[in-house]
Amino acid sequence: VEELERLCIRFAVEAGRFIRDERPPRMGVAATKSTETDVVTVMDRRSEELLHRLIQQARPDDGILGEEGADVAGSTGLTWVIDPIDGTVNYLYEVPAYAVSVAVVVGDARTEQGWAPVAGAVADPSLRLVHHAGRGTGARTRPEGDLDVAATALTVSGEDRLARTLLATGFGYAPEVRARQADVMRRVLPRVRDIRRIGSAALDLVRVAEGSVDAYAETGLNAWDLAAGWLIVEEAGGVVVGAQGRPGKELTVAAGPALVEQVRTLFTDGTPD
Ligand code: IPD
Fold this sequence. Notes:
This is inositol-phosphate phosphatase. The protein has helices at 2-21, 42-58, 88-93, 175-188, 201-210, 223-235, 260-268, and strands at 31-32, 39-40, 63-66, 71-72, 78-86, 99-107, 115-124, 129-134, 138-143, 152-153, 166-169, 194-196, 215-218, 239-241, 252-255.
């Protein structure tokens, strides 16, 4: 696990530096995906190609599943689940809150069930930081430039009251999904301290892990949005759940143990997407 964690850190940092430092001067939208709001830039694709290459050099027999289409079966039972730019809309507008998320999972990440992260890293190129965890090894943050520098251990907030909860959330790209999410927000907003829409699910999860928000909840996430952050939250003492059991498309809720059930109830009371 420690070796896999080191590789996650190395790959996430390298791709993070690439998207920050090699950003073309007049970068536009390369394509749209599910809707006109769901954008891909040329750098999403190039970052995924870079990660693909790095992974295949170091671990040629592992599987790869990437947001921009990477899908390699592998033969080891381990799959690299990668988001080459999480927070693409922020990246497009130069809002400094985007990430590269790299995780290694056991099991088949193409399905909603039956996989679990064992190592992961989320690079935050704007802050030049990398957040990482291995199953059983704790969650840490370090500067991207010097991986020998002593890391800071991450711990979730101890908040236990919704009324004092700073809650991060995010929204999907489809109008009908957003309409349902807006209905949920009508119910949630009056009950919490405030809401943050940071724009990167991976960074939202990191923020829960470091206690700079108390909780995070969002519907519609894919494996690559949450695989690394899920492990980082758990290794920071937090809990990540879904509407019933594990997190996934239906719902992902992350918080400290004293808060997580309250947030889950808030989001499942009614019919959030
Ligand atoms: C998106 C971001 C956003 C979240 C969306 C994700 P992308 O990922 O994480 O914060 O609200 O659900 O799809 O498209 O920028 O990789």
